[in-house]
Design a protein that fits this description.
- Helices cover 57% and strands 0% of the residues.
- The protein is mainly alpha-helical and 225 residues long.
- It has one domain: AhpD-like.
- It is globular and about 50 Å long.
- About 5% of the residues have low confidence.
Length: 225
């Protein structure tokens, strides 16, 4: 199972790396003045050669490394402090190894991405979510902040849980009770962990105003608030 999770993480990173090839199609005229065309963010990617020896050792175990000696992907900007990036990677691995099945986990990830406008991982996880059985109409509800009426109880519970945690910053008793009923106490806490490990990367993306490559969905263009 651990090997399978690492393979899924690697596959997602490969998809994200492939999408970065499109970034150079973004011209300076289409980006804010402080956003760099290579990283599509306010900061350039971290380069291994600029790190001290201790940080290079951490860099060398992080996913998202490129042949050019930079670090892209979801840890790109956390890696300005490599120890933080490694801690976030470890948190990710622990969170996704919890009790949630793949369907619930992928939906939880996409809810967190939608709530933080985190386009990179939204685009990286869409295909996986569909593959593990999340219906396109459910993804459309997440993306458009649509009503939960008519959705499967489990899907609706996951979406409502994330919306209240991120938007309302208050969890209604009935919402929490429903998630515990459906997924157990540990499952409820695993959901918090999964959503928040992706949200942390989303917060880095917010700070550096990271944009989606041309041709990919940019959640910033369809705000939910």
């Amino acid at each position: 199972m651990k090997f399978q999770r690492l393979m899924l993480w690697s596959a997602a990173l490969l998809m994200l790396a492939a999408s970065t090839i499109l970034t150079f199609a973004q011209t300076a005229a289409t980006l804010p003045a402080d956003v760099k065309p290579d990283s599509l963010a306010r900061l350039p990617y971290v380069q291994r050669k600029d790190l001290n020896e201790a940080d290079q050792k951490i860099f060398d175990v992080l996913p998202g490394r490129t042949a050019a000696g930079t670090l892209g992907g979801p840890l790109a900007f956390a890696a300005y402090n490599p120890g933080v990036a490694k801690a976030l990677f470890d948190l990710h691995n622990a969170a996704v190894a919890g009790t949630l099945n793949a369907h619930v986990r992928e939906l939880a990830i996409l809810v967190a991405c939608r709530e933080t406008n985190y386009s990179l991982e939204w685009n990286g996880h869409l295909a996986t979510a569909l593959k593990v059985g999340v219906d396109q109409k459910v993804l459309d509800v997440v993306r458009t902040s649509g009503a939960l009426t008519g959705l499967d109880d489990k899907d609706a519970a996951v979406i409502r849980f994330g919306r209240q945690m991120f938007r309302d910053k208050k969890m209604e008793p009935a919402t929490f009770a429903k998630v515990v009923e459906l997924f157990g106490r540990k499952g409820a806490m695993d959901m918090v962990a999964v959503m928040n490990t992706y949200a942390v990367s989303g917060f880095f993306a917010i700070a550096v105003d990271e944009r989606a490559p041309e041709g990919r969905l940019d959640l910033l263009s369809s705000p939910i608030h």
